[in-house]
């Protein structure tokens, strides 16, 4: 069954376009409705990894960022973290540099969404932050030609993002991930670093990289609401047919003393050791520092 799913998933972009064309034809022409259900079955095979598939044990790697960050859409809160198992996203996580970090105690303002014009990406602290390789490996894919678009941080922008998401979904995972790097870290483990800044890549396919090497910068490309890094581990180099792999980050510590109310407040009990949950502020040490500390240990 899994082999069939992967075979169908490789053709998911074509199937989705055929599905949309089929629905249009059903509305405009006198075509039997059972074709609709056939398309739905194929789409389910392409985009939904069956939950009964056995998950691999978590893989421990360094964090792809360093400093103070915040987690969203985290597998530390729910799985699948992004609401889908498609494109290898079962255990994917989004991280960004929060604005207005406040003490965890006391009252906190509720998030507010306005109707103004969306903000430029360079007004967000995460934009341009370095993205690091989480382990040694070989670059198998790299692209940074997509432009950094305005944030979707207003109701106007959010509605636009929903409509835009349909187009991106029809265009395939490359339009969803935006600028990205995919690295083979060995042992059937591949990492995808997505939404990178246009023109920021410092690697190309075939390059060997060491843990901690800067791959590029955080951007606002693909299906994003504001500049952030989308990170995931998967068992294939191509997200269309890949299954997600759970991970843990070495050198990461959740800051229980701080919150960023603009992105919500963390829920008690969520998160796991070395895996921050939704809305948790965390501190990440770079891989080179972890390696240096390990070499000095007796």
UniProtKB/TrEMBL annotation:
Domain of life: Bacteria
UniProt-listed Pfam families: Peptidase_M23
SUPFAM superfamilies for this protein: Duplicated hybrid motif (SSF51261)
Residue span, M23ase beta-sheet core domain: 159-235
Full protein name: M23 family metallopeptidase
């Amino acid at each position: 069954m899994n082999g069939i799913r992967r075979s169908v998933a490789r053709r998911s972009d074509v199937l989705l376009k055929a599905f949309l064309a089929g629905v249009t034809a059903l509305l405009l022409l006198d075509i039997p409705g059972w074709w609709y259900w056939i398309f739905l079955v194929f789409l389910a095979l392409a985009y939904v990894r069956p939950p009964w598939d056995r998950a691999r044990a978590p893989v421990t790697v360094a964090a792809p960022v360093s400093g103070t960050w915040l987690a969203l859409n985290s597998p530390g809160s729910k799985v699948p973290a992004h609401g889908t198992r498609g494109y290898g996203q079962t255990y994917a996580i989004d991280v960004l540099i929060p604005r207005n970090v406040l003490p965890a105690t006391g009252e906190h303002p509720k998030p507010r969404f306005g109707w103004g014009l969306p903000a430029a990406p360079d007004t967000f602290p995460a934009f341009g932050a370095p993205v690091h390789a989480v382990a040694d490996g070989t670059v198998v894919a790299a692209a940074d030609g997509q432009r950094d678009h305005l944030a979707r941080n207003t109701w106007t922008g959010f509605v636009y993002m929903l409509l835009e998401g349909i187009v991106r979904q029809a265009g395939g995972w490359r339009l969803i991930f935006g600028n990205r790097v995919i690295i083979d870290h060995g042992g059937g483990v591949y990492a995808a670093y997505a939404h990178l800044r246009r023109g920021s890549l410092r690697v190309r396919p075939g390059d060997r990289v060491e843990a901690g090497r800067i791959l590029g910068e955080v951007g606002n490309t693909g299906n994003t609401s504001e500049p952030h890094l989308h990170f995931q581990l998967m068992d294939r180099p191509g997200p269309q047919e890949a299954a997600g792999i759970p991970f843990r980050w070495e050198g990461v510590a959740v800051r229980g003393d701080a919150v960023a109310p603009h992105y919500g407040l963390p829920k008690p009990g969520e998160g796991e050791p070395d895996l921050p949950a939704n809305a948790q502020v965390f501190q990440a040490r770079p891989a080179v520092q972890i390696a240096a500390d390990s070499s000095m240990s007796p």
